[in-house]
């Protein structure tokens, strides 16, 4: 009977150790806890019954070990408390109907040319190229409109108080059609045009896009400038 009880205790201890192996693998700190619990349980049984047999002592230690294992497994199954969610932070939205415009005046001249080219791509143009630079002869952006017309655009990133003058238009007018073969020539500025510049543009068939018209074009609130014909767009 002694050996039978001892064998039963050893088998139970084996199952407990196998379960503990999984616990220890996931939570190494439980090793110390379980050992302490097992020793405390064994000592408690020893105090209650000083004359315990070896078989009973082994069985008692096994029961304590199984109980500790069940406690550890239960602790692992309990999900950690979710962190308290703070107040949600949301970005303020602009009022309905308010356009979200790119600040073209904050761009460098090169970035401004890229922005105009991007508007052309957005509105269905193909073969869009930024060609501005030394020796560009007035052309900063060239493209084909959705209708197949060749667009030649000069970009003037000027401040609000710096207007595009007639000399600027004359230089561009001397090359946009004869050199660049433009079907539609456009001058786009973040500022405005002088009256003589507007007169020259109207005579030569150059489309002038001032800052207000650029803003409307960028926000999709106006026709594309190459569809407006000669003269100042948005005047």
Automatic annotation (TrEMBL):
One of its GO terms (biological process) is DNA restriction-modification system. One of its GO terms (molecular function) is restriction endodeoxyribonuclease activity. Keywords: Endonuclease, Hydrolase, Membrane, Nuclease, Plasmid, Transmembrane, Transmembrane helix. The chain crosses the membrane at residues 31-47. The keyword Calcium does not apply. Residues 75-102 are annotated as: Disordered. Residues 106-217 form the Restriction endonuclease type IV Mrr domain. Pfam families: Mrr_cat. This is Restriction endonuclease.
